Amino acid sequence: MTSEREEREGDKKATVSTRGGRGKEQRGSALTRVAKIVEIVGTSDKSWEDAAMVAVEEARKTIRGIRGIKVKDMTARIDPASGRIVEYRTSVNLSFGVLDDDDD
Known about the structure:
By secondary structure, the protein is mainly β. It has one helix and seven strands, in the order E-E-E-E-E-H-E-E.
């Protein structure tokens, strides 16, 4: 199933064409994949950057084709006795392509 519509915004015009069923979109000659985004939280006792890496490494165990991340939030747990950070937490959105039967 293919649908097309024209969108106008001021003097700009865009034609949007979508193909149903396979999770792909055709625009001109370029094939665009559909991406899925999931949120995951990584923790580390070293840094927020390390916590983000932990999140990606853990996600790679079950998710193939991770294309990028967006850091949503960074928090930390503080030791009340010392006032020091004891755990860094980084919440990230992971994006990865939706696979076809053809991609296996």
